[in-house]
Amino acid sequence: MSHLEHNSVEIEKVKLFSEKVAKVKEELKKDVVGQGEVIDLVITAIVAGGNLLLEGVPGVGKTRLVRSLGKVLSLPFSRIQFTPDLMPSDVTGTNIVEKDADGRLVTKFRRGPIFANLVLADEINRATPKTQSAMLEVMQEHKVTVANTSYRIEEPFFVLATENPIEQDGTYPLPEAQMDRFMFKLIVGFPSAEELSAIVRMTQITMEETAEAVLDGESILEMRALAASVPVADDVLAYAVNLVSNTHPELDSSVASTKKYVKYGASPRAAQALITAAKVRALMNGRYNVSYEDVQELAYPVLRHRIKINYTAINDKLTVDGVIGMIVKETKKVR
To answer: Which end of the chain is flanked by fewer CB atoms within 10 Å, N or C?
Structure first.
């Protein structure tokens, strides 16, 4: 295949990718009002194969978005409502003893709700640390181990977790190791007056989701494979790596705002997430190469749950996003 032919094949693939994403957005808009940026990032994470943490006050449509997504992507969907009395086996499944056809007692594994392609972990911070730790292996390894036997979960597999930032009674903060397993943390904001009117009008007609399936699991895996093939220039890769390194105040090379405002920095998974997601974002925007802007825009959802700001930042009335913005500005582009 000549270079020209190769380029035309790439252009066609990118165009097809953009069209599929546009269809998904179109269907989601039937059920979700506004939240354009959140929808873009949810699609980015799903194609990239990452888990998502959605934070927002009750009633802003977090659960509705995930349910609608299950319909649009035509994937087996399950919802786990996390409560303090939820046991790990309630999530992963457990061995049960039953009689076979010959009347003998046999042990059989009964799968829990985690065995789905799209799992909504509602109010994940309400579960005890023991149950939260049961989610760790599943989120990272895509498998469940019960009584020394491992069970694979079918691909594609995503956990979309929600948490309520204002009600802290009876909640257990997610451990840092688990937070790190989420590719993005997205803030689902309160709708504007105009959007609120549209939500009320929509729900007066029906409370059910009306979106229709436009993609399936196989299509998502194909889109992921295409995204993996997107080239990243050495300079852009170096910039992403420097950006993550610059979140560590203990490093001599860190930028001034980090040394002043950051308590601890992001893990190597942040750099992996930045590049993986940037490839998907490039394709969504009709490009077959990753730009500096892709990395800069994704820095916020990738880093906001991975870095911890210190008391100086809080005293100066800075948010985590505000500090990330400073770090992005101070990280020099590699030329």
So the answer is: C
Q: What is the dihedral of CA 62, 64, 69, 72, to 10 degrees?
A: -160
What are the structure tokens assigned to 129, written together? Answer: 């640390």
Parse the chain into domains and list their residue ranges.
26-88+117-222, 230-330
3-class secondary structure, 191: coil
Environment class of 152 (CB within 10 Å of its CB; exposed 0-12, middle 13-18, buried 19+) = exposed
Given CA atoms 195, 277, 222, 67 in this order, what sign does their dihedral have? negative
β-pair partners for 52: 160, 184
In this structure, whether the domain defined by 230-330 belongs to CATH 1.10.8.80 is answered with yes
- Residue pointed to by tokens 């799903």: 46
Residues 6+ apart with CB under 8 A from 114: 78, 80, 91, 92, 93, 135, 138, 144, 153
- The tokens of 292 are what? 């500096």
CB atoms within 10 A of CB 8: 12
Q: In the CATH hierarchy, which fold is given to the domain comprising 26-88+117-222? A: Rossmann fold (3.40.50)
Phi, psi of 171 (to 5 degrees): -115, 160
CA-to-CA separations, 326 to 195, 295, 320, in angstroms, rounded: 31, 15, 10
* 66: its two tokens: 């995930």
Q: Is the pLDDT of residue 135 over 50?
A: yes
d(CA 147, CA 44): 36
What gap in Å lies between CA 197 and CA 59, rounded to an integer?
A: 14
Cα gap 79→239, rounded to integer Å? 38
For residue 118, the cross-strand partners are: 77, 158
Mind listing the pLDDT tens digit for each residue in 217-263? 788 888 898 888 888 999 999 999 999 999 999 988 888 898 999 99
- pLDDT in the model for residue 122: 86
Residue with tokens 């959007």: 195
Residues 141-153: pLDDT tens digits?
888 887 778 888 8
Which tokens in the block code for residue 178? 């688990």
Q: From CA 165, how far away is CA 124, in angstroms rounded?
A: 12
